[in-house]
Amino acid sequence: MSRIVLGVSGGVAAYKSALLLRALTEAGHDVRVVPTPGALHFVGAATFEALSGNPVTTDVWSDVPEVAHVRIGQNADLVVVAPATADLLARAAMGRADDLLTATLLTAHCPVVFVPAMHTEMWLHPATQDNVDTLRRRGAVVLPPAVGRLTGPDSGPGRLPEPADIAALAAVVLDAGAGALAQDLVGRRVVISAGGTREPLDPVRYLGNRSSGKQGWALARVAAARGADVVLVAANVELPAPFGVRIVPVGTAEELRAAMLAEAADADVVVMSAAVADFRPAAVAATKMKKGSASEPDTVPLVRNPDVLAELVAGRAPGQVVVGFAAETGDADGDVLAHARAKLARKGCDVLVVNDVSAGQVFGRAENAVVVLGADGSVTEVPKGSKDAVAAGVWTAVAGRLDPPAEG
Ligand code: CTP
Predict the structure, then answer these.
(1) What is the pLDDT of residue 65?
(2) What is the CATH architecture of 3-181?
(3) Dist CA 163 CA 160 (whole Å)
(4) Which stretches of the chain drop beneath a pLDDT of 50?
(5) Ligand 1 centroid to 282 CA: how many Å?
(6) What distance in angstroms lies between residue 327's CA and the mean position of ligand 1's atoms?
(7) Class of the CATH domain delimited by 189-399
(8) Domain spans of the chain?
(9) Which residues pair with residue 146 across a beta bridge?
């Protein structure tokens, strides 16, 4: 059980903080809610007290003998501020202590995660962006807002991410420390493929595979949380889009290839986590193949699909890091790592993320463990954890390979 401070500032998205509070307490954490006075215009203190089981105060004049404005921050394992309004970000960047939440932020030694939510104009204003830069420079995590419908008729970046996504990222920081969401991908463009391709046989049938897309989703979510501009080329994945990520939906290997080659042109990192079918039916029947009819096939001839990863490697821009994935089993010819090293050399990518699927694990499971092999011979073991925690381990290994950002 960890001690989490949930800071809530005064925006309409404050109503979602009750759901986040619920997710954090259900995960077994002791949560102390510290709203700003403005937040209580949107959600009553009684709601936070009932859901957290802890008292709620907003100012530094309550519980004075307890010295709450110092103790709450000092004792926390994690502070999450959701929603963080433009005003809250400004006051935090300035180091003010004019309410209990900002005082708490000044005394917290633990990781701090800000989850901004506001109107698009306020988010994009240089004042807000400067405040975000300042907070990141001081070691805080600032998540990108989700894009979508805002209060009123307009839409754009500014929505609070889903409470379940925020809770998943909070769990990663509690498990692996603030470094798991280091803000080291700010200004980087990342393109990730996820899911599994489907190769049609006729209008209703296809050859597919069991990839759920969950690991690719986690890679996208964590890259966005680390500040990257993320494009997710998604092959047949039904999951809701992660916040701050642009989705390009595809079906077949050929569609995935075209999308990846187009998106990779100006990317800093390209990740091929999709399960791409190596083969497709040589011909696609225009009408449904029927039993007992002339269209009933005896066999289904297959032809090779292009190797997208190999093409991405061949067309790689200077400084671009290309990451491949491999699901391997050991056999008489070698163990998992031996096969993986051979694949890394064969594919020519910079990094290969290796899943051991010997025991049939991984597909669709919540947990995963990988080994990250570098073309330079480096070997990084990412221990078993949630797919978000594994994604964080992969990004730490990849971020270390990026050239320093261009000046200016
Ligand atoms: N991949 C790809 N295009 C394909 C097949 C695979 O880009 N047509 C990518 C996958 O996304 C993954 C990596 O290549 O990043 C490894 O895929 P895998 O199928 O394991 O590689 P193969 O070379 O096909 O190896 P094997 O001989 O084990 O089938």
Answers:
(1) 72
(2) 3-Layer(aba) Sandwich (3.40)
(3) 8
(4) none
(5) 19
(6) 9
(7) alpha beta
(8) 3-181, 189-399
(9) 159
